[in-house]
């Protein structure tokens, strides 16, 4: 098979060998074939244009289709409210830890990832700034797993400062490489606090009203407006925030309302505006982490080598998948981002489970190599 990435000499050698030419005739035909390979690989394989109608040796026109290598910041709530129990009776913090430890290693090689646990170490009462637990970068799986393994619940819930730290880093990186996809995955129970600027007249207290009044409204008012404004602004800049709502056995209607508002402000998921991804136990948390981290990383693809037209089929490990989505399974061009290809349904799950980072894209037209 001659692909877009094949050099001119490699292409001509393959075509000559396939034609069974030898001796002086081979040398002459090879020089001619090299000239044709230059034009045909560029015009047909990259642009996807038919190569001609004359009889000649034909080879499949292909292009490499690769994952988009996104940059992902995982922001995990470890505040004291995560000692609440799930519907199965386990602690929320334990369910989050076990689920994250199963998902994070599967991201290796798929892009850049960083971890922010909040509150930061030793920040018991909203007194310190957010800090990177593991800075954004490549091959961070082992370092992130060590931090997640030792994660314990404590303190209040300075969600805004954690999101702002992630946002500042992603914004600075977007200024250098604007076309790379970037997003935040926030897993929290919704009780964002630590905004001293909220006056009591505007306070939506996450506890009994007397508790907020006793503290002057400093720490126990829901920090909803500032946080929603931040993720909405990020979305306008092209950085989405995917919200995972950690639901305890006794969930707060105030938190549920806030999580819905925050998720819609944060962006679309799978091409649609959706409420937060609810998770009530370890299995559900693992499932939504996979959906929010692994699926965008393995199931959103781009064309390599400057190709401008999507192929007709994708091939990996000998299996061929024709373009089109039927009954929620298959692949097609992303409507919102025509430069991307999106895998859906069982094909996406297959890509995640097999950790497929590169596909062969094949056009139905065949490139004609003239001797």
Task: Briefly say what this structure is.
With 371 residues, this protein is of the alpha+beta class.
Give the terminus-to-terminus CA distance.
17 Å
Estimated share of beta-strand residues: 15-25%
**Estimated helix fraction:** 25-40%
CATH class of the largest domain: Alpha Beta
> Helix tally?
10
Radius of gyration: 26 Å
Name of the CATH superfamily of the largest domain: von Willebrand factor, type A domain
pLDDT < 50 runs, ≥5 residues: 1-55
The ordered H/E elements are HHEEHEEHHEHHEHEEEHEEEEEEHE
Could you tell me the CATH topology label of the largest domain.
Answer: Rossmann fold
Strand order of the largest sheet: 12-11-16-1-10-15-14-13
**Number of E-type strands:** 16
- Quaternary: single chain
- Find the structural class using helix and strand composition: alpha+beta
How would you describe this structure in keywords?
371 residues; alpha+beta; Rossmann fold; 2 domains; 6-stranded mixed β-sheet; 16 strands; disordered N terminus
Description:
With 371 residues, the protein is α+β, with helices and mostly antiparallel strands. The protein folds into two domains: 8-66 and 300-369, no CATH class; 78-297, 3-Layer(aba) Sandwich (Rossmann fold), CATH 3.40.50. The chain has ten helices and 16 strands. 41% of the residues are buried.
Question: What's the topology here?
Answer:
Layout (H helix, E strand, L loop, with lengths): L7 H12 L3 H24 L10 E11 L3 E7 L14 H12 L8 E7 L15 E4 L3 H9 L9 H18 L5 E7 L20 H6 L9 H13 L3 E7 L6 H14 L1 E2 L2 E2 L3 E3 L2 H17 L1 E4 L9 E4 L2 E4 L1 E3 L2 E5 L6 E5 H10 L3 E12 L2
Parallel strand pairs: 2-3, 2-5, 5-6, 6-9
Antiparallel strand pairs: 1-10, 1-16, 3-4, 7-8, 10-15, 11-12, 11-16, 13-14, 14-15
